[in-house]
Amino acid sequence: MHHHKALPGAALASAAVLLMTACFPAAEEEAADGRISVAMMQPPRSGLTPLSDDAFKLSRWSTAETLVVLDEAGDPQPGLATDWTQVDATTWTFTVREGVTFHDGTELTADTAAHALSFAAQAAPKPRILDGVELEVDAEGDTLTVTTADEDPLVPQRLSSPQLSILAESAYDGDAVDPVGTGSGPFEIVEVNGTTSARLDRFDDYWGEPAQAAGIDVSFVPDGTARAAALRTGEADIVESVPTSQAALLEEDTLTEVPMPRTNTLYLNTEQGPFTDHGTRAAVRDAIDAQALVDGVYEGRADVAEGLLGPAIPWAAERPERTDPVEAADPDGTPITLATFTDRAELPEVATVLEQQLEDAGFEVEQVVREYANIEEDALAGEFDAFILSRATVLDSGDPAAYMTSDFSCDGSFNIAQLCDEDVDAALEEAGSAPTGEERRAAILAAEAAILDTDAALPMLHERVLQGDATHVVGSAKDPRERLLITPQTHLDR
């Protein structure tokens, strides 16, 4: 059995103070110029390139923008494009907004937008939002034409993904994309200090509503205790993902509980190791007590998972009941590696509770726990038998089919379970091509059922994320999709 030795409370408090002292600007300096201090959970993993998950930091800071945005219902709305038309099954045209200036002083044109999208489409690896999608982009005048190899009803939603942000042409150099000084949003990135901090200033030539705050001072603080302490002591104005264990130490009016389309899932490696056997995967399925995780680790601030899609997606409740699951085999002392990451403070504790449940069922468990930046590559390469992941299910396009294709198709770029199943791929293809509305939702639920039938991914619970805002913060976004945080309206009222 793998054990973790807990630090005493005094040591944790001291560590938090040291982290805050190193990471955060002086509170007096922040207050003097109306700058907003933000404690982010995860540091950049790919140099803030928008082609990676770092893109969601750029959108949460309102520095990079997309042609399309999503409203609360997940429907596409104008962004850097003012309107669009579906010409035929595979062709869409978008009218590019006039009067947009990038942070480097250049103007947005259809050619600029085409350059950004073409770069993303030809990248290796592609942004996750383009998994299974082949597209070509052309520009003429103020019109952008997007042509897909196959019919894709989700083109506008795909173009809303922060991974397809439109940056100035100066951002693109060889294979690299640099968002520093090349976005178009109300805040401009002026400094990035590796994985420690970033600084953004208000961009006075912004095409839309000007930012009310003078700027944003970002600190990357993976330690959840340190993030909570930063809010409590006034070192940070806004804090991402406050651990549930820290909630009782904070003033109630500084916390907002946001139901998330995010599922805590156990991925099992189907390509090599003990979980190539479906019966052994089924033994893990039967061993998991999700209610114990919700009650013990999340202190009731989560929902037991009925499937991959949770209560933040209301129509998911219409899923059919699962029938005839594969019978569990006897683990009989089978050794397995169970891995997760520290950036989400609850996950190491989930791993500890889950380890005990699996050992009670007859497995022999070894834990591997690191920061996400240091474990993602190994997880995607199939180095672990089991991996606990907190996964946003509509993060990319506002549509779960994109997440499912990325995570569970044979060609998916985020396929931690190493799953390649003909029935799953067929169901995902049908879901991906179905027209929006009731027909598409039914196809997505059928794809979910096909995935669950493999027991390669075992959904355990749906999270409710705690966002921390000091009482003097006005107008921060509480976004279930985790695309928005600081908006032009966000400011400090001291």
Provide a short characterization of the protein structure.
With about 500 residues, this protein is α+β, with helices and mostly antiparallel strands. About 25% of the residues lie in helices and about 25% in strands.
Features:
3 domains, disordered N terminus, Peptide/nickel transport system substrate-binding protein, Peptide/Ni-bd, single chain, Dipeptide-binding Protein, domain 3, D-Maltodextrin-Binding Protein, domain 2, 11-stranded mixed sheet, 4-stranded antiparallel sheet, globular, 13 helices, 27% helix, alpha+beta, 494 residues
What does this structure look like?
The protein is an alpha+beta fold and 494 residues long. The protein has three domains: 9-54 and 185-237 and 470-492, D-Maltodextrin-Binding Protein, domain 2 (3-Layer(aba) Sandwich), CATH 3.40.190; 68-176, Periplasmic binding protein-like II (D-Maltodextrin-Binding Protein, domain 2); 259-464, Dipeptide-binding Protein, Domain 3 (Dipeptide-binding Protein, domain 3, Roll), CATH 3.10.105. It has 13 helices and 21 strands. Strands 1, 10, 11, 12, 13, 14, 15, 16, 17, 18 and 19 form an eleven-stranded mixed sheet that branches. The radius of gyration is 23 Å and the shape is globular. It starts with 8 loop residues before the first helix and ends with a strand. Mean pLDDT is 91; it is low at 1-22 and 26-32. This is Peptide/nickel transport system substrate-binding protein. Pfam families: SBP_bac_5. One of its GO terms (biological process) is peptide transport. Residues 1-26 form the signal peptide. Residues 76-413 form the Solute-binding protein family domain.
